[in-house]
Amino acid sequence: MTLSAFFEAVGVRGFLHARRLGTADSLGLAADSPVVLASVVKVPLAYEFARQVAAGQLDPADRVHASAADRLGGTGSAGFADDVSYSLRDAALLALTVSDNTAADLLFDRVGVDNVRSLLAELGLTRTTVVGAPRDLLRTIIEDTSAGSPLRALDPLRTSATTPREMTTLLSAIWADDVGAPVREWMSAQVSWHRLTAGFPPEVAVAGKTGTMPGIRNEIGVATYPDGAAYAVAVFTAGGAETLRRPDIDRAIGAAARAAVGQLRS
Asked: Among the four 12, 18, 139, 227, which has the fewest Cβ within 10 Å?
């Protein structure tokens, strides 16, 4: 079964890149096509946060306050009924484990959007763009909806975007860097197991980060086998916009990821 067949079977377009960490071995499907980042943007955010902590520029115990004005709705503190405060390191934990948009906004405020862009440039990820924090993307959605215009947030040419190949490059950098250890830990604790993780057997450890918007379902992550071999995988899909709940597409993401890794292992 070809990689494209997994996506065609559920009526979406698929974009994928996989590489064995520490080697030049890789393969892909439309791996250099532009795709919407969605909440995958929280991975470079967390990595830049970890770098600033290691450099002594930020204290991970510093606290941020999430008020009603900060709450966007959704998971974690973004959907809380009451104000709450937590440390910067817990903001990063919330952003990666439960995709808390408010925690990501508050972390972006401290880390700086421009610094995340500088990190991407330093890594040579010239096709990865970050237009802003989650609240900035929500603002474009509100503006476009009010104007009756196509949503910029769903167009990789007008919103935060990347390519599958650039995301496995990012993962390779995080997994090769001692400073990336907390990012690896937070990604390993992600509560969403229905995409990449579901595609691999229980003995394979998967650390990942999802991204979801109407018609957009993504996940990037690293699958580590018992023999120590680790594989960075980035899977993005476009289509199936009629509902956010499409378990068939989620399963296709995991199945395609495992098939790609299987090809590399063979």
From this structure: 227
Instruction: Answer whether residue 147 shows pLDDT above 90.
Output: yes
Contact 23, 73 (CB under 8 A): no
pLDDT of residue 241: 78
Q: What is the pLDDT of residues 66-91, one digit of tens each?
A: 999 888 888 889 999 999 999 999 99
SS3 28: strand
CATH number for the domain harbouring residue 249: 3.40.710.10
Given the DSSP bridges, would you call strands 84-87 and 161-162 parallel, antiparallel or unpaired?
unpaired
Residue 170 belongs to what H/E stretch?
helix 164-176
Rg value, the chain, Cα: 18
Residue pair 94/79 in contact (Cβ under 8 Å)? The answer is no
Cβ neighbours of 51 (radius 10 Å)? 19
Number of domains in the chain: 1
pLDDT at site 145: 95
Give the pLDDT confidence of 179-210 residue by residue, as tens digits.
999 999 999 999 999 999 999 999 999 999 99
- CA-angle at 261, arms to 259 and 262, nearest 5°: 60
User: Residue 133 — φ and ψ, nearest 5°?
Assistant: -80, 170
Give residue 190's domain range: 3-265
pTM, two decimals, is 0.97
